[in-house]
DNA sequence: GAGCACTGC
């Protein structure tokens, strides 16, 4: 979100001296701005579509324990409803209204906005809580958070007793977390209601044993019920969705009441092609130039499937541009996808040079995660790259599939945020009708090991019988149960094992990484394993731009370990750590902590740039590292290092990743031992073409081929020695 | 010698 500051003049050479002067001269105007801003905020709030149905909505929540709200974009439901409920007294006795979001940025930005609207400091009445960043206090009553975080909270407080209301926002996105949360909340609601009734029955019995008169008994019961409800009120549940189909949610909650709140979007004209296109990249290119040459001003947003496609289109646009007359060349291309370094991602927010039109070439990052201002035209070829999971092969694949209707609507909506817009769908209207209504929920296309471990830890023993909004396939559930059993997290009768299963559930990691950590304390290499799993838990650490591919390769060689990628990643982490340690020594003790942090951040970013390392990923890995280290310390696992004896570390990898082992075959390919598939070591691995006999790998992904990624050399014999329960069984 | 959308604990 561009702040007001950014609109002001920018002067990078500004000296320290100048700053206070600027600040002083701004102060009187700043105060006036604050007042007028408050007025503007108030007016904006009152003009939101949801404002006109405030009383009705509050009444609906009072009348129903579950309410489905279908609110179109721009209705104001996310920011306003929690405030309505707070003002209507839904936070008795310090209880909290919790609002979950699938994404971190959304939780943060909405909380900031609502705090401003309330005239409260962030973290007081209104706050947010996301992983690594908690801005709440004991006085927080409206709390925005990620859905994953609420799931974690449920592990510590199964009744979610702090909350009087929970609002699940963006439920139509159907992330794994949202789906699991809905099932959990349904149970919590039932359990809380039951606890109130149980208390009442017990009390009633007590009362009957006494000699009190019937009326007194009645009065006592009512009184007790009131007390119970004050201590433990029933949980109000609100599901908010942007999808037009509320039926699924309503039916899931036993025919729950659904209401519709109007949105406010500008009109977007939709155009289709007459015939199906054979090459959507080519069609997109033609459409870009049609808009550029024939339509009025306004930026263009093109949805493509991946980095390669984006880079390809970017080159083609540049080529075509050269063929145009000078005056028509005022077009700039800006790519955006998740693995792009943040500085380059920021380019989408910068306005095009005067008189120029901006073409943003984006993945579905621009569908929900990033909102780009100034878009008037959307080009939607109708495809998306999606992850799918084959439970039988235990393999993920990335495939290009058509979007759903809901996604197509979401994409076209991006053209109507600031004014009327146009959306060009590069397929015939008849094709639109054939699209699925909504995207297949993630829970039906992912590995369930983590979900199952969580549910087990929450006391749900019968996973197949769990009341999922939409049930994953039995095969997928069985596969993950089997994996958890083989990792030692489950007992023979499918209960969480003690202590291993409980420890694994406590760690916010993939189960296999958690297992590796637990074993590492026995192999005396927990320090190394903490770094390895932190680095494996983030997006690619190495950044490899096409135009500097050779340089990037050379840079990576400095960190490469002949033993494999895990040790290579550890080398990167330690090199960065040493850099910061050295800095700390140089600086000594400086008064201003914040200052040091900022400087270190800058130095680290520079180092990352020089070494072709994605600084965002590295930062993320550091955060995970310190969080996990804390958990591990609390569990009392001894943290020690194997030093230069990497044999211990590799043996530990073999003991924990034994399900992911691959053996070299005569013709040079590898055979994954668990599934028998023929695979290859990914070209980005340091062991690519190294001809080692046996490796363990982090993941098996099918793209153009079946690849194993992040591999480490092990001795084949270690498998039968360290995982006899699996390899002896296999014969 | 390939290329990987996006979230999240």
UniProtKB/TrEMBL annotation:
Catalytic activity: ATP + H2O = ADP + phosphate + H(+)
Keyword Nucleotide-binding (UniProt): yes
GO BP: mRNA processing; positive regulation of transcription by RNA polymerase I; RNA splicing
Pfam families associated with the record: DEAD, HA2_C, Helicase_C, OB_NTP_bind, WHD_HA2
Residue ranges constituting the Helicase ATP-binding domain according to the UniProt record: 58-262
InterPro entries per the UniProt record, alphabetical: AAA+_ATPase (IPR003593), DEAD-box_helicase_OB_fold (IPR011709), DEAD/DEAH_box_helicase_dom (IPR011545), DNA/RNA_helicase_DEAH_CS (IPR002464), HA2_WH (IPR048333), Helicase-assoc_dom (IPR007502), Helicase_ATP-bd (IPR014001), Helicase_C-like (IPR001650)
Enzyme superclass (EC): hydrolase
SMART domains registered for this protein in UniProt: AAA, DEXDc, HA2, HELICc
EC number(s) stated in the UniProt entry for this protein: 3.6.4.13
Species assigned in the record: Populus euphratica (Euphrates poplar)
Any one GO molecular function term: double-stranded RNA binding
Domain annotation Helicase C-terminal: ranges: 285-459
Keywords associated with the record: ATP-binding, Helicase, Hydrolase, mRNA processing, mRNA splicing, Nucleotide-binding, Spliceosome
Organism domain of life: Eukaryota
Protein name: RNA helicase
The organism's taxonomic lineage, starting at the top: Eukaryota, Viridiplantae, Streptophyta, Embryophyta, Tracheophyta
Record region (Disordered): 1-33
GO cellular component terms given for this protein: nucleolus; spliceosomal complex
Compositionally biased intervals (Polar residues): 1-15
UniProt gene name: LOC105121677
Entry's family note: Belongs to the DEAD box helicase family. DEAH subfamily.
